[in-house]
């Protein structure tokens, strides 16, 4: 147990006592050996309820109903769950969200569909600080379609600004791909203003919401977003390899044809027809058989998020990141740690990046102690604060261990 200043212990206790969402923590599996989990933005904790759901699914929907479950529920489930995700998390009316594939595959499908729907436009705009998969997919599609990538190089401690986007787009731009919350710095891009700037150039925008969904409020319909993708295993606690989601604004669906023309996205999958004919609406963005088992935990988390409400979740997220920065300033800054995330909570998602040259060793030591943040190459500790499962006491304890390890390493 690290030595912690009494006033910080008091603050953590008070914040936990006053937290209207504190009781939600008990809904998660909380094993004894884990003292603090600050990586809910890489893999969210499972819900206790999910254990029962998976068990009864095997016995009943799969075990007893067998193939009949496809007709009874499973065929529609990627769209039904998508609608719930749209309503609870994305600010999207029904019929625009589907749960399928991995983020990487969904991103490929939507980006390719978008560039193919923009004939005569020869450029894709993306940024060098985006997550690797996003950058690789942009490069791959550009090579496939003979397009040029116009790379924005944002400030790594912040993120892409509307001015940078305005300077990059033109009548040659087909699509702009950006992350809403930067996976390293946690910078929140100005989604409404950037979306408007892209539209002024006559281009489409595709937002990656991996670090936003379930942590930051979204209003995709109201903001006029064209396309979006995101993970369900981060703040949506869908579990390892849980499927991604894709959003396509209704006005675009008829114009977009995605490249992985599989039977499950066909207008009549069971007609086993001769040629591919895409289904109407969001079903056309499905390719193969949907991963039903992988959607079970997500269902439980969406029910919980719906109960808590995104405004309350975002409010707690802001308090958590504020507290993390305050504690880091007091306990860790004297040891040379710097905060590499925005200070303005408006521009900050639900994680905080702390940097120090010894962070690789510190994080390795933390994992051995059951204190689990993420290490981000080359010198970052990323503290992911999952609002429904993280307590303020947990944050303070974790940073106390960071200070202890920094002291050990430097002596
Ligand atoms: C986590 C993450 C991904 C992950 O993609 P997968 O296909 O699920 O592995 C992609 N993009 C961003 C921005 C991410 O944060």
Automatic annotation (TrEMBL):
This protein's record includes keyword Nucleus: no
Listed Gene3D superfamilies: Aspartate Aminotransferase, domain 1, Type I PLP-dependent aspartate aminotransferase-like (Major domain)
Cofactor(s) recorded in Swiss-Prot or TrEMBL: pyridoxal 5'-phosphate
PANTHER family documented for this protein: KYNURENINASE (PTHR14084)
Pathway in which this enzyme or protein is active: Amino-acid degradation; L-kynurenine degradation; L-alanine and anthranilate from L-kynurenine: step 1/1; Cofactor biosynthesis; NAD(+) biosynthesis; quinolinate from L-kynurenine: step 2/3
Quaternary structure note: Homodimer.
Protein role: Catalyzes the cleavage of L-kynurenine (L-Kyn) and L-3-hydroxykynurenine (L-3OHKyn) into anthranilic acid (AA) and 3-hydroxyanthranilic acid (3-OHAA), respectively.
Record-listed E.C. numbers: 3.7.1.3
Catalytic activity, reaction form: 3-hydroxy-L-kynurenine + H2O = 3-hydroxyanthranilate + L-alanine + H(+); L-kynurenine + H2O = anthranilate + L-alanine + H(+)
Full protein name: Kynureninase
Class of the enzyme per the UniProt entry, highest EC level: hydrolase
Protein's organism: Nocardioides daphniae
Similarity remark: Belongs to the kynureninase family.
Keywords attached to this entry: Hydrolase, Pyridine nucleotide biosynthesis, Pyridoxal phosphate
InterPro entries noted in UniProt: Cys/Met-Metab_PyrdxlP-dep_enz, Kynureninase, PyrdxlP-dep_Trfase, PyrdxlP-dep_Trfase_major, PyrdxlP-dep_Trfase_small
